[in-house]
Amino acid sequence: MQGLIQRVKHAKVEVDDQLVGQIKQGIVLLLGVEKHDDKDTTNKLLHKVSNYRIFSDENDKMNLSLKDIKGELLVVSQFTLAADTKKGMRPSFSSAATPAQANELYEYFVGQAKAAGLNVATGRFAADMQVSLCNDGPVTFLLTI
């Protein structure tokens, strides 16, 4: 499972010019699901996203997590994160989960995040989405589980 996180001042997702998800300060998570992923992998990534210390404390050091700042989380499914780009000039998606498996784990992640008390917004699985954000820093990390 791949999670590309970006610390943001605000972000939104639109589908067909309709707003489907929006957050203020927090994290945008682009979530890529691979064939070998399961609920355990998903729980590990959620723990990391929730507790990863990427927000500044009073000394301007990255010591605070999403939970610490009571920030918001925007989760967007991102099939292309599962691409193998090592060879050639065209990505291979042979390690990507099937749409059914990816959707199941995406929905599970969102449900678990909400159950953990996070303020969560989402995109729409498998839709053509337009994601707008103000990356704060910029601060971007690729989390792999």
Structure write-up:
With 145 residues, the chain is α/β, with parallel strands linked by helices. 23% of the residues lie in helices and 40% in strands. Strands 1, 2, 3, 6, 7 and 8 form a six-stranded mixed sheet that branches. Helix 1 packs across helix 3. It is globular and about 45 Å long. The relative contact order is 0.31.
Summarize, please.
This protein is an alpha/beta fold and 145 residues long.
Describe the secondary-structure layout.
Blueprint: E1 2-15, E2 18-23, E3 26-32, H1 39-51, E4 55-56, E5 62-64, H2 66-69, E6 72-77, H3 99-115, E7 119-122, E8 129-144
Helix pairs in contact: 1-3
Query: What portion of residues belong to β-strands?
Result: 35-45%
Extract low-pLDDT stretches. none
Average predicted confidence as pLDDT: 97
The description of the largest β-sheet is:
6 strands, mixed
Question: Could you name the key traits of this structure?
Answer:
single chain, 145 residues, alpha/beta, six-stranded mixed sheet, two-stranded antiparallel ribbon, 3 helices, 8 strands, 40% strand
